């Protein structure tokens, strides 16, 4: 498993731990847990943080979950756990054509918010990256309350309710 919150990789990156911009978290309200949190973090993303040492995939999830999972082959596994939990918001790249996106988002989520522009993630020390993420991002809501949060938040993008 890659380390920490939202592990994002590209050929040009020399590390795989990238933090969600704090304004995203602030716009979405309070979360009970973050199962992909870095050990040392410059800001909180939830009331309780699980780190790589806890192995958030194996832990019990409760309440409202914030999920910025490791990006790559395990993203679908994390989204599946969140979908089964049924209460949370995830942030991933908007790879809408992939098998994982069809299985875990189009077939299970309540809504998505495609973010306008590309995010600038933050380094583990809290400083903003000089380069954008290199791909578009999407917030995914599991649970009707989280869908309403995406619909009414002040994050720029395009909201889509998913009807399954």
Write the layout of secondary structure elements.
Elements: H1 22-28, E1 33-34, E2 48-49, E3 65-67, H2 75-85, E4 88-93, H3 99-106, E5 111-115, E6 137-142, H4 144-152, E7 157-161
Parallel strand pairs: 1-2, 3-4
Antiparallel strand pairs: 4-6, 5-6, 5-7
Helix pairs in contact: 2-3
Total helical segments:
4
Q: Give the ordered list of helices and strands.
A: HEEEHEHEEHE
Overall geometric form: globular
Low-confidence stretches: 1-15
Features of the shown structure:
disordered N terminus; 5-stranded mixed beta sheet; 164 residues; alpha/beta; 7 strands
Structure description:
The chain is an alpha/beta fold. It has one domain (22-161). The chain is 21% helix and 18% strand. The chain has helices spanning 22-28, 75-85, 99-106, 144-152, and strands spanning 33-34, 48-49, 65-67, 88-93, 111-115, 137-142, 157-161. The strands form two sheets. It has a five-stranded mixed sheet. Helix 2 links the parallel strand 3 (65-67) and strand 4 (88-93). The longest helix is centred in the middle third of the chain and has 11 residues, at 75-85. The radius of gyration is 14 Å and the shape is globular. The protein starts with 21 loop residues before the first helix and ends with a strand.
């Amino acid at each position: 498993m890659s380390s920490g919150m939202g592990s994002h990789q590209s050929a040009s990156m020399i590390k795989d731990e990238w933090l969600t911009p704090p304004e995203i978290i602030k716009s979405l309200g309070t979360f009970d847990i973050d199962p992909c949190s870095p050990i040392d973090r410059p800001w909180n993303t939830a009331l309780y943080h699980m780190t790589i040492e806890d192995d958030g995939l194996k832990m019990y999830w409760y309440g409202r979950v914030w999920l910025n999972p490791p990006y790559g082959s395990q993203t679908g596994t994390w989204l599946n756990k969140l979908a089964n939990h049924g209460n949370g918001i995830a942030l991933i790249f908007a790879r809408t054509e992939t098998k994982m996106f069809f299985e875990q988002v189009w077939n299970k989520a309540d809504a998505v918010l495609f973010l306008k522009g590309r995010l600038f993630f933050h380094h583990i020390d809290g400083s903003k990256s000089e380069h954008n993420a290199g791909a578009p991002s999407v917030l995914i809501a599991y649970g009707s309350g989280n869908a309403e949060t995406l619909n009414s938040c002040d994050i720029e993008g395009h909201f889509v309710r998913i009807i399954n």
